[in-house]
């Protein structure tokens, strides 16, 4: 099944307790694409970059089977830039610089060739921009997932509520779920959020794993305990890309298959954080991924006969 | 197999976002005993209380098959008292009052009848007091578990290191594991801590579940997502009591059985937090426990064929 990815492509400059980078390639769509590409090469992209974005990355995308016809390149402008610093607790970060540049007036174009989109992953962007992509597609995809963040809840809640009515699956973190619902306990938060549109909700808890809610069913997967978390940038996008890539590959939206998708997404995210930026994802082999999924099986597997 | 429980028996006064209590019965040994008692009634107790401690609680212990010969009652003194307040994030609390009273010079007495102790659970106490119980037992139990806290790491680290050399299993929370090891990532922390004595380490992460490390193997169980966490007091002790009670009942220290023990401990803790103090534990039926364990099975169970 074909997967359309929408989101930012950008430069990041990252500082963690383990080191710092110059400007490296980042952005939600970048991580989502590399991650989903482990599962499917029937992929399409909608994004915008400036003339400063490396042409060889775009060429590499094409090699990987990603249709970049929907990627706008504004030669005389600059790409989105974000700079941030992580502390020992990698769940928290300070934003040092945000330069919107080309993202400031991003008006997504759906190329005429993008007719057969089955799965749609809307990476974090202004909710009205995300909604415009749904509205501009010639037919509704069979599965629409959306990532967002607290920033949009602060300044564009009505826009967010509007697009939420049109999606199947919302992917946010625990603090965002609390803010969006006004409920502290995640089970209650999930009920309220699923009353706002999506029938599926994935709550990411960083090093504490992820929860999947679908109708009245719940599934939990831990994050693998790693010896080093080098750089968490992009882990959430990599997770989302793994989930949507796996779903597009298997074309099965049952709860049982969604569980598997969450485990594959978590495994992908566990690779992402082991090096700076996209370094691990670019090189990753499918066999390494299968080995890591086996680690997830081993870490949660137990055998109880309930009487 | 017989289980000896050592720890505080006390009064607590608790304030949470959901309400507050007057002085109610609490203390590590109290929670551990009620929890372990779901699994075994071959139990012994070592603790100290003042003349103010309710005689009907002690009578109830005897009814439940708990040998209280090792419980010292100092009629003219007062029981340990703790008062605390929880905020929205139930993982954090402020201590308002700590009155050591009888616990200040607690010198545990091992009655002559306590000869056949197979399993020993040392609840949180001064490490030298915990060690004295091990040293005073006529023969070493086949399994010794110990709970401790950051307070003892601050003021009695050498005592703690000494008793850690004599135990099989350490049960602490994530922040304590970080403090004890000097390592942020829990997998590294676990390696260091297991180099200090215990071959098994359980790291409690509150609402984020628990990790079991034994030699080079790891197991993770989540906490159940609950709609209400009413009062987390005693959840850690209830967890530990469930783990040790299940191990004493099954008398199987294999990694596979320890996994089951962690799941039963987590299920017990999930009941504890649903009402104030020991209220849920006192009334709990085994059939309710089995239903809840089934919820744990359902929430983590998935089926992947790794290629």
Question: How are the elements arranged and paired?
Answer:
The structure is a homodimer of 307-residue chains.
Chain A: E1 3-6, E2 10-16, E3 19-20, E4 24-26, H1 28-36, E5 43-50, H2 55-63, E6 66-74, E7 80-86, E8 93-99, E9 119-122, H3 127-136, E10 143-147, H4 150-155, H5 157-164, E11 169-173, H6 174-181, H7 186-194, E12 200-204, E13 210-214, E14 217-221, H8 235-250, H9 255-272, H10 279-283, H11 286-300
Helix pairs in contact in A: 1-8, 3-5, 6-7, 8-9, 9-11
Task: Describe the overall structure.
In chain A, helix 6 (174-181) packs across helix 7 and helix 9 packs across helix 11 (286-300). By secondary structure, chain A is of the alpha/beta class. Chain A has a nine-stranded mixed sheet with strand order 6-5-1-9-10-11-12-13-14, sandwiched between helices. In chain A, strands 2, 3, 4, 7 and 8 form a five-stranded mixed sheet that branches. Chain A is globular and about 70 Å long. Helix content of chain A is 37%, strand content 25%. The interface between A and B is large, with 37 and 38 residues.
């Amino acid at each position: 099944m074909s997967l359309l990815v929408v989101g930012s492509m950008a430069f990041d400059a990252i500082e963690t307790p383990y080191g710092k980078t110059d400007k490296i390639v980042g952005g939600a769509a970048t991580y989502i694409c590399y991650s989903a590409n482990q599962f499917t090469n029937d992929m399409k992209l909608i994004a915008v970059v400036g003339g400063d974005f490396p042409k060889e990355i775009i060429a590499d995308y094409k090699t990987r089977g990603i249709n970049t016809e929907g990627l706008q390149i504004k030669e005389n402008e600059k790409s989105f830039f974000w700079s941030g610093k992580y502390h020992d607790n990698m769940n928290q970060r300070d934003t040092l610089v945000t330069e919107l540049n080309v993202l400031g007036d991003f008006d997504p174009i759906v190329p005429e060739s993008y007719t057969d989109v089955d799965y749609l992953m809307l990476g974090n962007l202004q909710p009205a921009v995300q909604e415009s992509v749904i509205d501009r597609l010639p037919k509704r995809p069979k599965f629409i997932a959306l990532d967002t963040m607290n920033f949009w809840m602060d300044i564009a809640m009505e826009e967010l509520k509007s697009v939420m009515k049109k999606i199947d699956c919302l992917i946010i973190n625990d603090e965002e779920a609390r803010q969006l619902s006004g409920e502290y306990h995640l089970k209650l938060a999930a009920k309220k959020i699923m009353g706002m549109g999506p029938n599926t909700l994935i709550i990411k808890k960083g090093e504490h794993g992820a929860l999947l809610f679908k109708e009245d069913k719940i599934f939990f997967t831990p994050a693998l305990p790693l010896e080093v978390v080098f750089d968490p940038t992009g882990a959430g996008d990599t997770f989302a890309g793994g989930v949507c890539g796996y779903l597009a590959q298997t074309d099965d939206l049952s709860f049982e298959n969604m569980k598997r998708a969450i485990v594959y997404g978590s495994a992908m995210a566990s690779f992402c954080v082991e090096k700076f930026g996209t370094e691990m994802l670019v090189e990753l082999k499918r066999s390494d991924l299968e080995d890591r999924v086996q680690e997830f099986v081993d870490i949660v597997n137990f055998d109880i006969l309930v009487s």
